Task: structure prediction
Amino acid sequence: MNRIQLFRLLRHNNNLAFRRSPAYEQSVAAKVMMVIGAGFMAVYLIFFAVMFASIANSEAEPAMWLVFMPLLMLIDFGARFAVQQTPMMLLKPYLLQPLPSRSVIETFLLTSLLSGYNWTWLAFFLPYAFIVFCGGASIGEALVIIISGLLVVMINSQWYLLVRTLTQRSLLWWLLPLAVYSAYFVPLMAFADVNDSLFDEVMESFAAMGSHWWFVLVCLLVLVAFLMLNRWMQCRYAKDEIAQEQKKPAALKSVSRFAFLERFGLSGEYLKLELKSVMRCKTIRARVITSLALIAVLSLLIAYTDIYDGRMMLNFWCYYCFALYGMTTLVKVMCPEGNYIDLLLVHRENILSLLKAKYYFHAAVLLVPFVLMLPAVIAGKFSLMMMIAYMLITSGPLMMVLFQLAVYNKQTLPLDQKITGKNNVENGVQTIVVLASMLVPMALVAVFVLLFDELTAYWLLASIGLLFTLAHPLWLRNIYVRMMRRKYENLEGFHASR
Result:
């Protein structure tokens, strides 16, 4: 079997896997939403292309796009978390097949390069090249802009795969992208503040590179280097994770019992399960650490810098700090339990007790961002009433909406596979719920502030949040009843995706 045949076979298998997925209907909805999102993205890219090309024509520097690319690629890097999987997530079914794993990895890497998302960036480079061509650039310079621009986007896709693979092995690897982006943006800001003429000279010399044919060759060599590095890493780390042996300690000295939770009966036992899952399961632990670390960073940025001093921005980030943990973990609610869902259905209302335990656990975690954001209150960025209002909105309406996913989620989340496991949002219902959770509270704040003063708006938000929080036994039972109506359909999905 040659490489072309292998490529066609694996693409065919991926299409079949999509159609046979337990969440096929939701996946179709996600595909439709991604197409709509791609349309909006193309519109924004055309707008940026026109704006940057106008600047390039005014400066008589056709390759001015290269100056703005680091910022655009940083945004692109973040967007890829929603649209791009690592090849190791797709390699697992083929490790026991009579196929060379390196060839399979190479095929998936090629697929990631040729993905529709990468080609969407033509909506930026084609208008940009056309406008600078009309402004006096040669046809050769316009072609260099298009080709080198696409190569830069493909390099960014491989850079994303590299970072995603390393950070799933250890969260300390997040220091790598932080160092790389700081190496560009920190000197940039320093030059701009210290010496304007030196800043202009550096930018002009940087922009001049993007109009030469040798820059295309440099981009191509960098892309090949990233491809070779990714091929080696993807193959090695996937095999290491799947074939690893469980290390048994020489002697088990102590076990965390959390005896203080025993007084809460069955819900207390499930609270113990939640705590032990966070401490012992790689997938869950990584999500918890990442979200709490991001909350801490945002809190420090808001408290000690003026980067988010706009009133609506402060409202958004205050709410986001409370909502982030729930949106990160509850979007997959019941997916970890898919590994042992059969045992949970043995006794009547076991699932209801589990849902109550999950709710109490996530409501208690809200105290962490509350404490972390106290410096922002002391600095005068947040008011105490604002924090209370958003904490109650999170514990009430937001969690009620996120817990609805327990009815529809039916794909098992691996507990210890951070690299080969699928950790993305993979269906349309999850995507819609997360977007609504982000936007609806901000819309409420805008309406209340328009109709009343700011303090009254926070009191109204707090009252709504408190009402939904106190009513949690009612909506949790409603979710439980609907789950039981779909239990056989969900069981089939959990079994098929283990």
The radius of gyration is 25 Å. Confidence is low (pLDDT under 50) at residues 245-253, 419-425.
